[in-house]
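Narrative progress, year one. The postdoctoral researcher (J.K.) led the effort to move from monomer predictions toward full complexes, under supervision of the PI. The following entry was the first complex the group processed end to end, covering 647 residues in total.
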Amino acid sequence: MKYIKFIMVTLFFIPTLLIAQDAKSIATKANNLLRGESSFARVTMQIIKPDWSREFEMKTWSLEPDYALILITAPARDKGTVTLKRETEVWNWIPKVQRTIKIPPSMMMQPWMGSNFTNDDLVRESSIVEDYTHHLMASDTLDGRPCYQIKLLPKPDVGVVWGKIIMWITQNGYQELKADYYDEDNNRIKSMIGQNIQSMDGRKIPTHWEMIPHNKPGEKTVLIYRELDFNIDVEPSFFSIRNMKRIR
Amino acid sequence: MKGWIHIIIIVVLGLPTVLTAQLKTYDVTGYVKYMYSSADIAFSPERMNDHLLHSRLNMRWFPTSNLTGAMEVRFRGLYGQSIEQVPDYKSFITSDYPILDMEATVWDENRTLGLVEIDRLHFDYLYNDWQITAGRQRIAWGTALVWNVIDVFNPKSILNFDYEENPGADALRVQYYTGPITKVEVAYQPGDNRYEHTVGLLWNLNYRTYDIFLLGGWFNNRKIGGLAWAGDIYGAGFRGEVMIGDPLSKGKKTDYAIPPFLHFENLTEDDRPVVSYVLSGDYTFSNSFYIHSEVLFNNVGKRKKAGLFQLQATEAGLRSPARWSLYQEFAYDLHPLIRGTVYTIYNPDDQSYILVPNLTWSVITNVDLLALTFIPAGERLSEFGSYGNSYFLRLKFSF
């Protein structure tokens, strides 16, 4: 009799496990395509609101998953400000007062420079691969490209803010074209849309990204990659307070 | 032969990329600010209306990848009643550097004054894990956001809000990085006499997501030791600094002694070892609402008539003449471009306080407007009792 139970479990759960594995591997491939082990990028960020807009330029260095360095190069008001992330710790370098300030976690969920990105989005404290379980949904077509649609649910003990994320990932290139972020009450809060697929350091990826909040019409935050190099030669020791002060 | 061709092709095709990727060997930034102020001051029935044009140039030169030269100059042109009516007004608005004077008065007339000052001028050299900085520089020690009791070189004052860069120190500083986020450093500021020499040794550790600083040194002819930390508790920032030192009586005698017939003990006559500490906590809610509290304690601080000892405290390197200082701040983004902040500093012994509401508005890219008010209250000679109601309006253009 106990064999029946075993067979039932096997029949019903193994396929689910297999699909879940598959969805995770798709999410992992999409994540890896965009990120690599390490990267350098020159990025323009545009904050667009119905009645005003602002633009920032920055350089970022990262070593997955724990290390990041972000230097603001424009506008003049903020030029030279550096953010360093090492594992769960974050510091800012404020050049005018020559001071390093440790950023407490509560400040990490703030909108960064008035954008629709939080500090956490920029230095990615939560990982779409590690902090969520992945479920393959129906296939869909976006911008004429066949896509996998994947549902991400947060793991119970992980302190992530989203209740659910739905992602569209192209079937032949693993490019993430869209992600819908839902809160815990299943309301769609914001969408991230990737466009203008170009070759960057030999990879075909979206270079124009828009973050669109759904409760605020006319608003969006645009990220444009000007330069992107993957698997650059950096060690964890590069992400240091010493380099934070000298990086240009 | 083929090998050579490859190299030539790589050099010819590769070189332009290398050249365009190269960084400029210099960098110039700065700003121009205009500020209007209207202030009540003690001993004058009239309000002081003043105009200040304040510009700054920050220059960097990078002759090699390891060497940086820095010079920062500020120019202030003032026009108004304060210059006319406040005796020796210039001394209130200039910084005091013990060994090198890099300030010049461009003009000084009845109602107008022009000042130019170099407040950073140093070379910075990096060699592997070593960093050596020589010249006028800022050595910002400490973790708290309002009062840094372990900043022995160039302490800042939150009420001097228009000098965002804060003064520097003429010093030699050697930093040795023992790890990505840890270091040991020593800094020395020479002076004309034993009271003006400052030496500090700072050891920076990281333990379980806490930055920890241990300090030892010699300041104002007194031995000092200190400890500071920065970390978090349940997401809230938690920082603190403790400083202990020889009695103030070992330091320089005050230039601002209280006349003996008033029967007050000058701070610099105090024979007790000095203990100062500051504790700081802040929390940011997801709607941008920000709360920040800080408390400063000085065991030698005055419980009464602290206002009389303000200059003595600054001279002796104390952050406040008072025994206790409580700081409370609330801030909120009224709009993504407009931040409203209100903070107060309260002295629980004499019950005087200063309330400082202010608004910052990013008008367009690189143009910021600040409106700020000082609302003080307290009895005469209390810590904040001699401050006047003041209003400031400032427009800043960064380039």
